[in-house]
Fold each of these.
Amino acid sequence: MPKQKDDDDVWPMDEWHRDIQSVLHEAGGLENVPAEELDRILEASAKSASKGLDKTLMKGAPKMLRRRRRTNAGFEKRNLRRWKAAFDLMEVIWVCCEEIGGNFNLHFRPQAFEEQDYEFEALTHLHARALLVVSEMICLMKGGFADGALARWRTLHEINVIMVLIREHGEDLAERYLAHPHVLAGKDITEDEAAADEELRELKDRADHIVATLGDAMKNDNGWAASLTGNQTKPNFRKLEELANRTEDRGLYKDASTRIHGNHKIPCELLGLSESRQTVLLVAQSNSGMTGPLTLAAAGLVENTLHLINLRPNFDRYAFSVTLIRMSGRMHKLASGIEERTLKAALKKRRRRSH
């Protein structure tokens, strides 16, 4: 365990503890204080300390929050200055994908509704989800949270794997995918619960009808994809990746997953500390590590949009596809160039200051 460095400003948080020790000492020592009396002293002291501390903290909160928000605003301004060209390209890609996908949805929705086109319905919903996820990634990156953005990419990868499978297997799989949430919502409702609540009855009846129509595997996680896996009625995401031929991103997916769960992360493994020369515990913003999340966000959103619009291919949508691929293809070179150039400039400036 790293040793805490000596620092006169470190607050040991033991003032009240020492006061209580003094009171107990005056009473003849801890061993001479009855248990009930000790409990009373501790409870009264904690209540008094908490009341005063609460009042003091809330009194100072407005000033503290103003200072904190000025600091955050200053960081975000500097972060944008560093990564502006890459952030701008990312937002241009997002707007293009949103407008293209939105118009595609509006134009073809009446026909899809008339034909009960499950594939269209599933893909438009998945495209909207992808736009939302990438919006979150953009906000996280602008706020200085590259690791958080990479964690959100995990969801984008899952969405794209599902889109690949639905595009390959069509209407039947799309219907199962759309029906699956209704099964999960109602499968665990008991008859007694359904009898006592009309809404629960509707949920249970809908779930039972879907299971009777599409099979018992629909009750399981990822059960909508069980028809693709033969005897495997509970396909995990690893299996879905294999079916979609998307195993090349498995390493990245595993790495992104570690940023969601409580696994121990060595500080040097964090994107936000990728340029740090010291071992620190990162608790807030950093303007490091944006290249990976930016590249993944751009490529993932463009891929997602292409899956959608190529459901109804024509030359215009082909031209849009080529354009989006061209735009996303510039991201890694642009972002990595910014990263290298600005880091060199910062180190050069730091060396000048040290002399």
Amino acid sequence: MTVIDATKSTKDHEAAVLRELSPTPYACSSIERLSGGVMNTTYKGHLLRPLSDGATTIVIKIGEEGSAMLPGVKFSTARCVTEQAMLQHMGDQPHVVDPETHISVRSPNLYHYFSKSNTQVMEDIRDSQSLDDLLHSPVAAKMTTATAKALGESLGVWISYFHSTCQSRINAEFSEIIRRNSDDIAQRGEMTKRKSLDTAHLTEPARSYTLKEIDVGCTPEDIVLHGDFTIRNVLIKDTCLHIVDWELCRYGDRTQDICSMISQLYMSFHFHKLDTAMTMLQAFLSRYSPLTEELAYRIVLMTGMYFFWVRLYIPEPEADVAQLLRLAADLIVMGAERDRKRIAETFLGCLFTNL
């Protein structure tokens, strides 16, 4: 495709979006492309008329079945149905406010879903910044310990609340939507993990413990997860945190959400020497409850596994990556063998402070 062809294709796509919105309260005078990843096209729309809540802009997220970046690869749009259903569900729930930090946590409001085009129209959190961007900005160096702790604690309180209450608040139809998404994600995820093990140098016994975890699959203890609970998907505005990007919402082990956040914060500390990230990480863990000894050991094991998986996507110096992978193997073994003494000497020793 030439540059001219690509430009024409983009303009045609934008015109189609504007046409779909035109007969609705979300008609826009113009839209502008935002970064949206491989599987989605995302725009900010400038409304012709403000909405009843005063909004003058919206976010338009379109789930794609294919991508020019990955020719021949098809994506299931079950993720789009799941995300809009979860946003609708979260919008019906009260905001979670940490009584100690007074920081509130919620998800953006879903205004409308066009099922034929897999298009979500949702609230634009204007003047917000992702936690990822905040941590890697000059502001992070000036952030007080108290602020970093408050952010970490609020995320710990929110994910605890979500894990403990979501399952009981969804009906059978909604549960089936999540289940279909879970099956699709599990199939793709297992293939990727097994393939990465074949090309990696994960030593024994860490390799065997990792394969055992991959083989476990679904269990009766699985709960509803956010599925991509990372610093990229937390938007900060004033004293409110907004949890976004629910496409990977699925059933699974709660440690997947916990360790996803741990791994992102730790890598900010490890690769970029951000002490603020470590403060957030340990504050996050301090407010997750209920925390049992069994769960603590699983968090250690799964954190090691997450370090191992994400190495596939980190363009960092080879020596730093090698150091992280050594830690990953150690954590996998420590968690699997319940080696509390060695864990106490790591950054995850805080898990056992009150156990």
Amino acid sequence: MMRLNLNLCILASFLCFLCGNQYADATERLTEVIYPPAQSNLDKRDQDFIEILHMALKKTEATDGAFIIRPTKLAMNPLRFHRELEKGNEPNIIWASVTKQREERFLPIRIPLRKGILGYRVFLIKAADQKKFSAITSVNQLKQMKAGQGATWLDSDILASNGFNVEVGFSYEGLFKMLGIGRFDYFPRGINEVYIELQQRKNQHPDIDVEKTLLIYYPLPKYFFVNKENKYLANRIERGLKIMIKDGSFEKIFMKYNKFYIDAIRMDKRRIFKIDNPFLPDTVPLEQKELWLNLLQTADK
């Protein structure tokens, strides 16, 4: 009997040791998350991604331990960031529009970070051209005008694949200058980008304004992507995002950054042109309606 009790005590001590070690592993692990920095001093487009990422890590801190989150020390163009991520260098996470190629190249976390809001595209134009745009009643008329987009942006390929006339630029800030000097007629922007971009550059480009009557829509989710071997980080962030969706903190951050723009865009006053995104993989969870923003009321194509 005494031997049995002794064995039970030893077993209990061993189990406590294991549990203690597992807890220590979780609390002592330090997760370092390194993301791409802004593309210019005026570039504030990605603040919500950073806040979402921080919150997802915070939601899993009790189970997975502490974390550090910081930008890369070096500035690079997006293509270079992607190459470095693929090689296992800094950054170890990016946020990017979803394509079949990126899903094959990286490990995706399949939760649309902005609920697809970037797919609602309005235009920066020269204010003097508003009458020209107000007269447009079909997508074919719009295709006769020239759109400006970044050379590495998926939007350039989406527009071109749908028959739009696209002029590309290699500098984010340079695109605003190109619009101002007439290199193209309009600069499609996400509804969550356009007003802050205009406000920040009003002094440099006083002749530019937001077009008031048109909107292009195509499905354009953005995901977090990590290196294919970094399954731990992908799992931790995915768990954190799901907790955020369930407890409402994901929606709270989304509305914090986007409610003003959703209201300001006046969808009821705009002619909507729906176009295809041929680069969208079949794995995108379009059927999960709770993950998406739905502003569509009418659609003219």
Amino acid sequence: MPIVSKYSNERVEKIIQALLNVLVEESATPDLALMCLGNTITDILNNEVPQAQRETIVNNFTNALKQSIK
């Protein structure tokens, strides 16, 4: 069953493109890009997600990430 998002594909793609543009402008290597994105994810989790929900969200996120590269 496909996952239905509350966000439009257009909005998601626009944000992804903006993030990728910054990485290209900075000539970020794959390891630097992943480090920056990982630190951004950590910052969002620590500052925007209630502590009681963090572990569940991290587990869901990592599972989705693993599935996306298969």
